[in-house]
User: Fold this.
Amino acid sequence: DQQVKQNSPSLSVQEGRISILNCDYTNSMFDYFLWYKKYPAEGPTFLISISSIKDKNEDGRFTVFLNKSAKHLSLHIVPSQPGDSAVYFCAASAYVDSNYQLIWGAGTKLIIKP
Amino acid sequence: KAGVTQTPRYLIKTRGQQVTLSCSPISGHRSVSWYQQTPGQGLQFLFEYFSETQRNKGNFPGRFSGRQFSNSRSEMNVSTLELGDSALYLCASSTPRGEYNEQFFGPGTRLTVL
Assistant:
């Protein structure tokens, strides 16, 4: 049972345009959401996060939107740059058994075309 | 602070053999998680150790085991290797960030089973 779903395995976007990566979740207990970025041959690195009490968080070119009623979040990158080409993972955190557990999506490979 | 280190970076084994992977977390981090990454499957959670105790466990067979030492370094062992165990194995150490645990990943160990 996938609690965090990234339904698009890959996405191709023109340089300079907006990239929108989507993530859906099923567990209403999730109270924090994170996006990680991964380049080949490297471990994922933290990109941006959002608390469930907010609906938007912005950091430079990156903005994450959260729609709790739809159990959906999205990552917007604008403008997209070649260095943004990577795999993006969505993760959700829940406090279970006295511990924060992180559940990961399958990832979306973003390709920025010049 | 030094980041998360994993050794070895690359490993080639044959079916039936066993393998031990090592992970040194960021200094001060007491939690270490292990993940398996295969194309199309995203990050599959193996297990998490905290203060030398396994705190969480994913849905992997008993051939996959781990341990954590008093200095928080962790090892992961896979016995009776199968072709399907070929993957990138990622280790992450984490520290509490209020409502979630922020994870910091190592570069991974690329295991190839022939």
Q: What stands out?
A: Residues 36 and 46 of chain A are 5 Å apart (CA to CA). Chain A has a mean pLDDT of 93. The first strand of chain A starts at residue 4 and ends at 5.
